[in-house]
Amino acid sequence: MDIVVPSPGESITEVTLGQWHKQDGEWVETDEILVDIESDKATLEVRAPAAGVLHVKVKSGAEQKVGAPIASIDTSAAKPAGGAKAEAAAAPVKAAAPAAAVTQSAAPAAAKADPGKKVSSLAKKVAADKGVDLATVAGSGTAGRVVAADVERAATAGVAAIANPVKPVAQAAPAALAVAGARGVRREKLPKIRQRIAERLVEAQRTAAMLTTFNECDMTEVMRLRAEHKESFEKHHGVGLGFMSFFVKAACSALKRFPKVNAYFAGDEVEYHDYADVSIAVGTDRGLVVPVLRNAELMSFADIELAIRAFAARARDGKLTVDEMTGGTFTITNGGIYGSLMSTPILNAPQSAILGMHAIKKRPVEDPRNPGQVALRPMMYLALSYDHRIIDGAEAVSFLVHIKDCIEKPERLLLD
Asked: pLDDT digit string (tens) for 83-116?
């Protein structure tokens, strides 16, 4: 039974093979994960359509066309007993494998982590390529998840240790000389998704008359509401109350009032939308992805928070589908979670606008309750990048002011 490259989505014709989870000649069960495939939009898992002996035809890292055969399963082979190699059970007499083949099959085994450790698919591939033992790698991702960057650091540290071995105490060199002369250089092929991100960013800057307008909002009232209702909200809905849901609701309110911000070019026409499909930028170890909240204007705070949490988990595992990342009409990105104080976000083509959130910092501002008096308030800079071909400056500024007003007086969201 041949195993071919499945189509990750419309318009995708080529993929890159990721890490094989099963080795050549190994017995596989129906629906077991065989290999990851990476496209410029998503990563998918290829599963075994039947039980049998796996015969790998294409190595990890190779680029393949959609529909191309990458492996086969011998469904007539007998299942081996006691975990023995399936090939040995299938063939009565077989010559001993060359030493090189033994080394090749043993290498990935050294890169496997213990069963309880969470490891991303890309991290497994990098570990196999660089010969890093995942059992020795500490994870920096959510819940201690090992991501590709952790493996890269471990590999770099290993090279440095070989290049600069620790000397006996009696012969130890001064600390300043311990790292002197380190001039490591390496080149890595850019993953397809990073290539696609680069193309889209350059395309957005080349094709749109992009400008950015800034404002700041006082987060006092939102923070008060969140602190007051956080526990009961989580107990009732099973998800934490974050800031993103407030901004999504505020954006939907503003998009309703300023429809051009929710429109974009379609050839020589402008396509308007009576709904708000809000794309939420999510950072992963493979790059930035933007899953879409469909009809966000109809969603409750809990619906938004649950959807974002699910998107984040699926993004980290590389399980977002192309459909989930296609068709947004407006984007929100939060650089504040990384500590960004201010930025100019780039448009998510073909959309005409993107809202940038940033870190909350206490700053001295005029106290709205006591005019003329200065007080420390939790402030956030907001940025709206927009396509000036569709959206006028006054409209962009008014849109951002509307969001500011909704955040500073969140009761406006309840009163519409």
From this structure: 545 444 444 434 444 433 333 343 444 445 555 6
| Active-site residue, selected from the candidate residues 21, 392, 405, 416 | 392
CA distance 216 to 67: 51
The HSE-up count of residue 263 (CA atoms within 13 Å, CB side) is 18
**Residue 358 annotated in active site:** no
Reading the block at residue 240, the tokens are: 């934490």
Burial of residue 95, with CB atoms counted within 10 A of its CB: 0-12 exposed, 13-18 middle, 19 or more buried: exposed
405 phi/psi in degrees, rounded to 5? -65, -40
Give me the residue label for tokens 């595992």: 317
Q: Which of 220, 240, 219, 238 is closest to 229 using CA atoms?
A: 240
Pick the catalytic residue from 74, 388, 405, 416.
Answer: 388
Mean pLDDT score of the chain, rounded to an integer? 82
The pLDDT of residue 163: 47
**How distant, in Å, are the alpha carbons of 159, 358, 368 from that of 155?**
6, 33, 54
Q: What is the pLDDT of residues 138-155, one digit of tens each?
A: 876 656 778 777 777 787
Q: What is the DSSP letter of 183?
A: -
For residue 133, is it left (φ>0), alpha (ψ between -120 and 50) or beta?
beta
Question: What DSSP character marks residue 326?
Answer: S
Q: Which residue do the tokens 């959609």 mark?
A: 66
What domains appear along the chain, each with residue ranges and CATH number?
2-94 (2.40.50.100), 106-166 (no CATH), 192-415 (3.30.559.10)
At position 327, the amino acid (one-letter code) is G
Residue type present at position 156: T
CB-count exposure of residue 139 (10 Å: 0-12, 13-18, 19+)? buried
Element housing 18 (H / E): strand 14-20
- pTM assigned to the model: 0.63
Terminal alpha carbon distance of the chain: 58
Helical segments of 208-348, H only: 220-237, 244-257, 301-316
Helix or strand holding residue 125 (H, E): helix 121-130
Cβ atoms of 262 and 255 within 8 Å: the answer is yes
To the query of whether residue 387 is one of the catalytic residues in this protein, the response is no
**What DSSP designation does 35 have?**
E
116 and 135 Cβ atoms separated by less than 8 Å: no
- Per-residue tokens: 312: 């984040």
Closest by Cα among 388, 338, 330, 387 to 359:
338
Share of the chain above pLDDT 90, in %: 44
